[in-house]
Amino acid sequence: MPHQCHDEHCDHDHSSDITPAIQNLLYSQIDFPSVRTLNEASPASGRKVLQKTWDQRLDTTPELTSDADAQLILHVPFTGQVRLHSIHIRTTNDDSAPRTLKVHANNPDLDFGAATDTPSTQDFELSRTSDVQDLAVKRPKFTACQSLSLFFEDNFSGDPDETTRVLYVAFKGDYMKLNREPVEFLYESAARPTDHKVDGASVENSGGMGLGGGPGGRQGF
């Protein structure tokens, strides 16, 4: 409910009234240059929709429109690790509005074949509305996301060949920057016989093998 100032000397800053709506928006944490969209009619339109700020959420352009059929896949990588809270979506109030959204966490190579055959992390039935929809996710399933893939499976036309349109997409959650510093392990790559000599024990020739069975093993390290 908006704050009403009844005192002529009220110093309340009304710009803070929208803070709850934009709190925890993961905008600057999206790796925009690496965003990919499958079956978009206009190149980079998926990225442009993601680049809309909260203040631009009601703008009708740019928009993401499907090309060959109704389906779309929007791949969204982050610059770190995300604990997702919810997804904001704005579509249209007509038949081009997407109806079924399947969200896949940490599956950046998802294509349409895999999207159909692979169980999603969570499914949503969207509404046919031009309002911003706030889709709360099951947080335990989205605690360590480095990327999200949004599969818009169909739309309200019921025709698989009809165009799907998406106007705004945003994410809310917590962000943790990935630690890219080298990690020091308290292991020795190969013990020398003189380092840990034990009475009555002999040392076999290790052949230069280190931890994990040496290079070229089953794991391919």
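(the above was protein one; protein two follows)
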Amino acid sequence: MGAMRSIKTKRRSRDLDQIHADLRSPKHLAEHTDAKPAEDLPGLGRWYCVECAKWFESENSMEQHTRGKPHKRRLRALKEEPYNQKEADAAIGLRTDNGSRKPSKLTAIEEQAATLNLDMDSDG
């Protein structure tokens, strides 16, 4: 079981939100690509697919990759914007607007009815 877990983490690729950040900011991409020395990378770090976050041995293998199904699936997934924290909070019902809420007319009528009922009970 332990060997299987190490294989899964070894082949782990970058998440979609990290790739979105790479596409938006060249600085973010440079931090990722410069993290490893070129001698340790396939093809001495010359061929890199930004969308899939993969290194390739040769230009030919990168061209084959860009024509392949996994690359096209990744492009389709990257067309959607990643969720942000504000959207996640809204999905679970947390409000970000801390302004005062106006009472609805229904609650005002219910309050009046409740006070009238109390007044009638105290008279009787």
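Reviewer note on protein two: The radius of gyration is 28 Å.
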